[in-house]
Amino acid sequence: MDMPGEKPMTAGPSMISVSNSVITGGTYTQHIVNEIQRVRPGFELLREAIAPSAFHNSGERFDPPKCHPNTRSNVLQKIMDWITDQDPDTKGAMIMWLYGAAGAGKSAIAQTIAEMCYAQGLLAGSFFFGRSDPTRNHGRPLFPTLAYQMGLVFPQFRQKLDHILTHDPTLPTRSLATQLTAILLQPLLALASEKVSSPAHLFIIDGLDECLDQAVQCQILEVIFTFVRTFGLRLKFLIASRPEHEITTTFNAFQLDGRLSRIALDEDYQSYEDIQQFLIDKFQEIVATHPFRHRLPSPWPNPDDLRHLVQKSSGQFVYASTIIKYVGGSKRLPHHRLDVIMQLRSAGRDLPFAELDALYKHIFASLDKADVVLILLIIAFPMICDRNLTFATCDVFAIGKILALDPGEVEMLFCDLASVAVLKETIIEAEKDFSRIEQAKGREVTALSILHASLFDFLQDKSRSGPYYLDVQAVRLELVQKCICFINICLENLGEALLKIWLDESFDDLENADAHFEALKCFINNLDRALSAPALHDDISSFDIAMKFNEIYAATGTSTVEKLRHTLYFRSEFLPLFFDILNYLGQSVVSLYTQHLSSFDSVLSEYIAFYYTDVHLTFLLTLVDYVVTEHPTNSSGDWSFWYIEAFKSLRDKDTRRLALLEPRYSDGRNRLPFKYYEHIQRYLADPSRSGAHALNGDRYAAGARSILLMYKKKPHLVRFDYAQRNFLVFALERASRSKELVILCREALIKIPYRPDVEQAMENYLRRADL
């Protein structure tokens, strides 16, 4: 009999398997069961789309970085005041961007804020990106994870979200904009219409730069910006990241009308003081708890070592924490490991900076290989050029010109290095920039700011940097060659450029002048070590001193001295050091020395002949001899001031030739350029070099006449102070017979203020002249 709900069927051939059936003979009976499948709640479905490892308190992130006690107090307070609307400066801001260099402590701050807000019921959700974690190094789980966490702390929100996701469980797979709108905005708008709100209103997104897709980084920001700008919901976003180019550009592109606040982790937030406190506390902890604490010297560590570590950190906590992890290792003596850090002991097989090195390698690995080569040259230029790290005064655009880079290429090269190095406009204070005579406003340069002092240690240690090793000697040779090439190219148009400035014509190519100055400086500061490479001999041999001198001074006028640095630098710093180095190296470069000295002599011969055509210009040559021979302590004196005032018409003639009266480049004060004078004096004192231009009694007599003529015509300028008296005595002792000088001496003996040393020198000269 057929039972209700049963349907007789004829057995077909070869029945393989039957479910819920009874088989009898040639027929079987199937029982039809009408079962309604259970529908899963939408909120439960959302759990499959989230990244639990991105929670601030996830097990995968156990022992995450947090702010050390009693550090970062200012920045933590600033953020909490923004969250709780206690800061009038940020009260209208719905987004706060916390940014800083790699290793500055952004994640530790974000973690600490998350824990504080979680304890106070203010945290709606958090997402900590992690580059090496495949569950949280992309943007897909971001908004589902934030919505899920908000549902846990806000039951009414969870109910609304559950309804939305039950209707469309695929929402977590949609675009970022759709996700944010559907699973965050819609539930919140529905609750707002019902006058329901939650105290938990803060979302924290940390490490946005660790999302692997840069385009997604920007999309995340764009949808959040649109959300904040369009809807007036009480919801805030704390976003922490490195200031990478794409992220910074996106933040700058949106007009948020006061809804965005920024915090840069720099010196304003006492990072050096905080790092010092962190190191002090951690070293004390090692002293108190380390298994080998009884082996530690006392006191330990040395205060000087502590100061060194603080400075080396450059305000970045990653350096300090790396040091502590290494020094505090339980299987080694802490003081020995600190010696390794201080380079007082070999590291052996240890890798004390492994964490820091991995950070640097990751940053450089993200760059094109060709770009890395140029970046390393630019980074190396200031340290090789000045033999110290004076990055703050080195214009990177000038370096770019020396390296033959196109306009804008320097900025492009450093776009992806913002976490370790940035370009910024810098005003060099007048007292620190000695490149001009008048320095009321200082000088603006685009400087390269290296945010990690330890980066140089990394780059110069091949065992640490590997493919990014900066071979200083090889780079030095390459840069010197590029500088020589650039200087030689500049010779073709430098004269015309200087002439325009001298004539007060408009001239907007001062970048070329700055580049020329930097090239000269790099060339001379590395000449001694660069000459160890025979390949450079030909390059240095081709450097034409005579042409260089003529190009600069043929077109140099009074205005130029105030506007261009390299004119003074070439004369007072470059030339003397150039010859001193060649002379010091001796036989190995004797041919180079002889070649360039001969070239220099030819220039002096041409110009000095002109100085002997006027008694007052001749005075300048005898002044050179006096300064070098007597080493007067007051050689700065008033020479430039009173001589220029007395003979303004002659200053241009001097400046456009040997520029003997212009002050030294290196200190910017009214000091005579002693080293430059030395080389001219050697020429004047050696008849085998100067021939008819050597100093003699007639020329010393002319120098003495110049002083006395000046006193006769403009006595208010010549007070016979220390420098003037000593020079006159010096010149009279060496002067030959001169009728004009005898007359001037006799007149001066009557009118001159009482100066026994000068009177005695004049009387001695008159007796010797026997006239």
From TrEMBL:
Gene3D superfamilies per UniProt: P-loop containing nucleotide triphosphate hydrolases (3.40.50.300)
InterPro entries reported in the protein's UniProt record: NPHP3-like_N, P-loop_NTPase
Coiled coil: none
The keyword Repeat belongs to this UniProt entry's keyword annotation: yes
Alphabetical UniProt keywords: Repeat
Residue ranges constituting the Nephrocystin 3-like N-terminal domain according to the UniProt record: 78-242
Pfam families, A to Z: NPHP3_N (PF24883)
Signal sequence segment: none
Name listed for the protein in its UniProt record: Nephrocystin 3-like N-terminal domain-containing protein
